[in-house]
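request received
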Amino acid sequence: MIMGHVKILEYALSCCWRRKYKNFAIVAVYSFTISILASILFLTNSLKTEVSAVLTHAPQLTVQALSGGRHELISIEYGSIIRKIPGVGEVKPRFWGYYYDSLTKSNYTMIGVTEDSSDLQLLEGELPVDPGQCAIGSGVAKIRHLAVGEDLVLIDSSNMGVVLEVTGIFAADSALVANDLVVLPEQELVRFFNLPVNRATDLMVQVYNKKEVNNIARKIKEALPDTRPITRAEIIRTYDAVFNWRSGMMLTIFSSALIAFCILAWDKATGISADEKREIGILKAIGWETTNILELKFWEGMVVSLTSFFIGMIAAFIHVYFFDAPFLVPVLKGWSVLFPPFKLTPNLGLYEVFTIGFLTVTPYVASTVIPSWKNAITDPEDVMRS
Amino acid sequence: MFFIYSSTVSMARSKKHYPDMQQLVSKLQLTDLALWTEARYTRHPSQADLFSPFQDFPSALEHFPAGSVIGPVRPGYE
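response:
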């Protein structure tokens, strides 16, 4: 019984080998399509993993001020109102902004800090303490050719050149979050941007009980209607939406590849060659059952699609995790001048493997078996004559 | 083989890389990835105005390619 199936499989392999040039062409296109789909899925999945691992330490609750529907500087006085809400711990103002560097045509994110850096693992050097000092991300260091101890010259809001000594550079491993950072002492940043007295970019709110974050956000919104509280969960959800495989540009590439594949499968489904028809007719004439022919075509489809599936998956894995996705990064990069080089963590799950397998192998095998079934149920003489 | 490689690398990174990154994010109170630096709403998608990327006026065309990578964010608290 089993030997019968093995023999049919053996015959299917010899059929595939007989039409090797046609099958090689199909496997090449098919593998390419699968590798595009898999690369997108691997890349977005890994970025989501990074987000969920790293941004879980983002501020629990950030409170912005809104004016005319836009983000505005917030009054530091609001901190004392928020602090009175039960369950709220510390409320700290955060000072940050953007700087366009016309020399390199890139944007930097400037952040003010008050804390010391004695235990920061990903910082070579230390965080700035005195005015006239700064720490920079690896992207800024690279584009401005700077090392620790050298000077970074920026133009402040009163159009005066400011010379900042680089006291620290964030390691390349931190580029995903710190590539474009320029960190200044808080008072230096306030002076640099000429921020009004008693105003901060936003407020960070500590909530004692994690389960109360949404309630506190609601209470802040009620007490201060011109503010917008942003919870940590919302930050993570934003990135889930960005890297969701159903959204944006990813979907565009994904669907283009899928449509290309559907055309390939449709072509197979609608056109069965005269040689194949004759082969089916002969097999029927020498006593093969319809079920044997269907099994033969099923195995042929499986051989081609599983070969393509494995080649495509391996190519995608190597593309994304060994070469850092050079074909997809330009799509993600957009117009960013400072785009971080990132080493992604492989995150290969059964879900991804089965999703790609189901989307590609099933329609191909179906499109191989169905036209053969149509021929297999016809009289062998008619099939051979047609 | 790839499953084994994936789990080995991710275990190694979760021991060293992630705690260091978490420390940095926590210390500097960072909220976003430094992926798209071309505009403020692409640099900090989670902190952007609710109607981003159409910031300049209602129904304005999107300026930056990254805007088409970023899908709309669902409103409301979790």
